[in-house]
């Protein structure tokens, strides 16, 4: 192995600009003030291990790629005098085009979201953020003034060098084969003055054991360029060891490696399935949200191995609503030479998918039963994602409904299960009531809840966007359907008021006539105007028609560029409200005042529903006339 500084061929290197996203990320890395810079080594080792695993997979069908060097390895080389640290692997390697694509662009969605968060973070927060997201190769610029990458793809007769100081450009050029690895990639970090400690053998060994001790590739250390390598990581796959022999610290270290995060796992799942199909599972639920949680691809993140050989991380082992789970599955039954395309159609994989999904949900259920506080934290982070399964996974709806936790109108901010909800149903209550919106405080104080609150009826307050979809998919829980408090008639007459409270007296006849007048005045702006049994404090509110689309769902679809031709809202009027009683006594000859009042009531209901008046100019004019009249 040649560890001297790389020499370019006579061909002049080509200088290129980084794509804008890479340039921004590099600026953050080069000028970072983050305290935990040591993660750069974990990221580089992780990349090297992936390259070795990819070669091991390719070598199954093309053994000639392995040649006489079949044992995968990662070698770290220290050069104190030159202040250099080298990370070299004998993995799959990269061509010149691969180098430009891999190191000059950011292809994976979600990285942009990471940059937005890290750029906006305060210094103290940044020290935590930097360890919570996999920032990959670019983290090297936190400790290096210049980074060189020399790579030769397995089986190729050419090699290339990539070099950059992280200041906006990079160079790339062919390189003589005698200056390149026989196969694989060599990353050389020309360390900054304050990063000289990363040429100390005890520092590097400590970092490897702490962060990368369970990478499934052997790691060697050369304490100087001409020294003999010594083994500092044996490449034993953690998931093949008995659970009793693994410490919590080892699980945590492995989680950080496989997940690319620096928090701790909130739940660890390690088991071996035996019987008809044999496979090992080592999976983790993160303690914090991964930055790509809402990646548009919404794909699972479990890696698939076959007898310790990495196959793919796109096998879809877990459904999309469990995409926050990180880890791997190692099958003993799948053939090593199966293609990634054939894997997708494999009945063996289908059985593994079913078994692992059921086990993950079962473990979440056990945690909810045994440690409600720990489960509530998981739900706070991933509840919105889990609820996607309520309309995507029909066969597991009952299980997912059991896992769901909700803030309700009577829970004082605490999470409640549907089992708790059903246990506290009121007399004659036949449905599970809910309200959807984007703001919890506004939702809790919405006028549509007043009649339910007066009867002590619990209402689920649903503030995730996904809630507007799954509640409309015909679900029920223990025979109780879900019913919106903002859609259709409330039907509260059958549910008695608390002891000592008498039902309100019927509204005077003139109120009924005024409601009919409001309906005539508003015309096609509403589908109906009717007396309300759900209002106890407010004068008016808007609800969706009995068979129309829920109003919150309409708003979400419109905001996503998919407006619907929905039915007009229903205006409900509280017939026992002092304002309504006063308005109903207005002289019928004063037509202008009565019409202004009718339209202002509609505008008031829209405002209470988080909307603006349809005609802002008309609203202002009507309000001005009413105030002038009131002030005499």
Write up what this structure looks like:
This protein is an alpha+beta fold. The protein has three domains: 14-236, Histidine kinase-like ATPase, C-terminal domain (Heat Shock Protein 90), CATH 3.30.565.10; 239-374, Ribosomal Protein S5, domain 2, CATH 3.30.230.80; 509-630, Heat shock protein 90, C-terminal domain (Four Helix Bundle (Hemerythrin (Met), subunit A), Up-down Bundle). Helix content is 35%, strand content 19%. The protein is built from 21 helices and 21 strands. The strands form four sheets. Strands 1-6-5-4-7-3-2-8-9 form a nine-stranded mixed β-sheet, covered by helices on one side. A five-stranded mixed β-sheet has the order 10-11-14-12-13, sandwiched between helices. A four-stranded mixed β-sheet has the order 16-15-18-17. Strand 12 and strand 13 (309-312) form a beta hairpin. Helix 9 (347-370) crosses helix 10 and helix 9 (347-370) runs parallel beside helix 12 (397-403). The longest helix has 24 residues, at 347-370. It starts with 13 loop residues before the first strand and ends with a helix. Mean pLDDT is 86; it is low at 1-9, 107-111 and 122-134.
